[in-house]
Amino acid sequence: MPSFNQQAMYHIALTEEQGAEYAIITGDPGRVESIARLLDSPEFVASNREYTTWAGNIGGRRILVTSHGIGGPSTAICVEELALCGVKTIIRVGTCGGMSQSVYGGDLVIANAAIRQEGTSLEYLPIAFPAVSDFDVTSALVKSADEMGERFHVGVVHCKDSFYGQHKPEESPVSYQLQNRWQAWIRGGCLASEMESAALYTVAAAKGLKAGCILHVVWNHEREAAGHKNKPIHDTTHAAKAAVGAIRLLMK
If exposure means fewest CB atoms within 10 Å of the residue's CB, which of 104, 206, 239, 251 is most exposed? Predict the structure, then answer.
């Protein structure tokens, strides 16, 4: 593990020389290599804790692919240290659970904003500051997904700290809060729930970065509860390809 007095970043284990202007980030270290192989000349760069990085090229320009782990704290660390390595634009490729009845497993959700029901973002900006994506990055994601012929949605996602607070709220002493807020988010048109986009957008705003997020819908909690067809789909390849396509568009 690198130490604070070494060149490499303490957590992601990259040096400034290994940096790039663009980065794709994803939660699971196991998805990093497969995303990097969508690029030209993919190569392993570093791995430390939950942070694994590969690199590749688009049109001769270097792109990093780094895992950020689960939740806001590890995502914030990843974004901060990537910024120190020269990254200016970040696209998160992640997974989510649908909330709106119109969102099906296998769909893509492009998050233009996130509900800040988590704690990490409060370390960067007051709660009144919205967690929003960069317009150019989001527009590129929309165009990329559309050109691929994917079924996708654009809108607000819910970001929380507790996975089981969503899936088993009745077991929590604050179940009344969790369940009431959940219904409020749905009534407000929230598309899906995940755990990292609010931190990504807020840290990016605080650090002057451009950020966007595209999510693969694994399944839909609300469709399941209503007894509708709801087959889980785990393959995130389409979201990753849309992110790579978005970077190609942004480079133009």
Answer: 251
